[in-house]
Amino acid sequence: MRNHIARLNADGTLDTGFDPNADATVLSLALQADGKVLLGGNFNTLQPNGAAIATARNYIARVNGDGTLDTDFDPNGNGSVFTLAVQDDGKILLGGNLTSLQPNGAASPTVRNRIARVNMDGTVDVDFDPNPNGTVSAVVVQPDGKILVGGSFVFLQPNGAASATLRFRIARLEADGAVDQEFDPKASNGVLSLALQADGNILLAGSFITLQPNGAVSSTTRNRIARVDASGNLDMNFDPNANGRVDTVALQADGKILLGGEFTNIQPNGAASATVRSLFARLVNDPATNTLSAIDPTRVNWVRGGGAPELSMVTIEHSVDGGITWSLPLAASRVGTTSNWEVTGLSLPPSGQIRARGRAISGFFNGSSGLIEQVAGFGPDADNDGLINAWEELYWPGMTALHGALDDDDHDGLVNLLELAFGLDPMVSDTTGMPPVIEDGGYLTMTIVKRAGVIYEVQSAGSLLATDFSGGTTVVLLDDAGTLKVRDTVPLSTPTSRFMRVKVTGNP
Fold first, then answer.
1. Which of 332, 356, 378 is the last residue of a domain?
2. How far apart are CA 152 and CA 96, in angstroms?
């Protein structure tokens, strides 16, 4: 038996060593970087792992990785906690129906209406008090530290302000809890779930049927699901149009959008007829863009954009055995206020694989998270396509995996490996840079300017039959770091014609 919370192993079987045993519904979970798990919901006690007696924990608790109670953390709310979010600095945001917290045995409660921020020890952050007048159902932290809030409120009166600021069901807060004056999508009804894309666009789902952003003269119909940009302006090209409430929105790793709720059909973007989708649907979206690369042996960079989900708690690790085993994961740092991440101070081996992982927050009340992962090679040929990446990056920055050794991107009859081998531009049609074959002392001779990442074998023959060519009928006159000079061993004075060719093999 598991009451209101359980953990499964990777194969779907029950983790028998984890049993926090809440006495009522758990509505939201958040994982901390140290492996501890935050719980929010309607519960008042936990009795973990067969403990003899229950321990009071009102609406919010933290358990250790083994399910035992963290006895040093007790924010002690007085109402349901629907949504949780962990900031990069470790502070914890909680939203719901609460109106006060009385943490860790404090003598008196601290008023916090529907949203609060607590420190890592559970004490109230006294400098953060957005004070909305209605339920907070979803909280998302942006890369710049600003906080998206959705729910049923119609105004906020933060930090003791003399007057309230109207914000209908969705708002964005500054890091100190003040209302962002430049962001006001204005939903007509409740916002239950939010998802943040790496490009800054924001998905919102709920029971609303219109948005009227940023003081627009009239409202625009958006039935239960919408997308706004980072300024709160409506995306006019995105209108899935669900016929019932959308409770949850989530982004897949590839950018596609998952919806769950009480709808039975979707009629997107003015389509003539609806498409049946009972309670669950997936939408096409702008594709995710992800580039994971070892910039040098000391630094790994993960560049993310497009419809990719915004992440937190990103880690980087590496493997030298094809991914059978991995190094200990290292916590990555966000690059400024972007959606990009990096780890520095590394000492990577010459080649191998790197793996980046991060958590995407989503779900009903934004109450769950999923793991997003990308694996890439590193070394001279990081994408394993037969071309050295340093050369590819000159012509296709960030897109090396799309251009292989046998591709002919400039359509001049020379594949990219030959363009590399002979110092040509793979984006400009040009066949004049092939190594010359000349007569020298009565013999055919070929001279090649060598390029890194390529092996050259000069061959000769008495006909143009491919099977006649051999390196055994040539002699190397010069082979140093920059030049290869090879001569045919059969003189031109023989009755038959002589031919030379060069075989090129990638050697990143």
1. 378
2. 10
